[in-house]
Specification:
It is a single chain. By secondary structure, this protein is mostly helical. The protein has two domains: about 1-80, no CATH class; about 85-169, no CATH class. It has helices at about 5-10, 15, 20-35, 35-55, 105-115, 120-155, and strands spanning about 1-5, 60-70, 70-80. Strands 1-3-2 form a three-stranded antiparallel beta sheet. β2 (about 60-70) and β3 form a beta hairpin. α5 packs across α6.
Length: about 170
């Protein structure tokens, strides 16, 4: 879907006809034209904020905006979930909490590119990456506990060749 920003700016032309003085009308036309970038930016921000709310309520698709010259393109993107094993961090929509994340722009771009390559939303990709990282951490912690238990059992038996628990990492 394409929304022409010129439509908004064209709306000023009717009221300008009410100005009898040609010089004054031309001056106001120049002001309107000079304000074009600010108006385009404001319209884009309004659409962006609106789509955030809409995207929060959509399931399986999201809307994306692109400013293209004097128009805003709105694209419907289907979110494809890759087949991944069930995680203890899997959730249902009722379990979701919002988080504001401050991130360096190059890192955000790299993550967005990786998400796009997988056909996923950035939010979904980051959530999955975080879940994978936490699961790896838990596996390492469980392995460390198992090594500590083995070490304790060996010590209790009086084994002479006790290995340092951390040397098996």
């Amino acid at each position: 879907m394409r929304v022409e920003i010129d439509t908004v700016l064209e709306a000023f032309k009717g009221p300008l006809l009410l100005i009898d003085d040609d010089k004054e009308r031309q001056r106001i036309e120049r002001v309107i034209e000079a304000s074009r970038p600010a108006v385009e930016n404001a319209i884009y921000r309004v659409f962006t904020e609106s789509l955030r709310g809409i995207n929060d309520s959509l399931d399986g698709v999201r809307l994306e905006l692109r400013l293209d010259g004097s128009a805003i393109d709105i694209e419907i993107i289907e979110e494809v979930e890759p087949d991944v094993p069930e995680s203890e961090y899997s959730f249902s929509p009722g379990d979701v909490e919002k988080l504001t994340l401050r991130i360096l722009e190059p890192l955000k771009k790299a993550a967005a590119d990786a998400a796009a390559e997988e056909g996923r939303s950035l939010n979904n990709w980051i959530s999955s990456a975080l879940a994978r990282s936490l699961e790896r951490r838990q596996r390492r912690a469980r392995a460390h506990v198992r090594r500590a238990r083995r070490h304790s059992r060996r010590a209790a038996r009086g084994d002479d060749d006790l290995e340092d628990v951390d040397s098996e990492d």
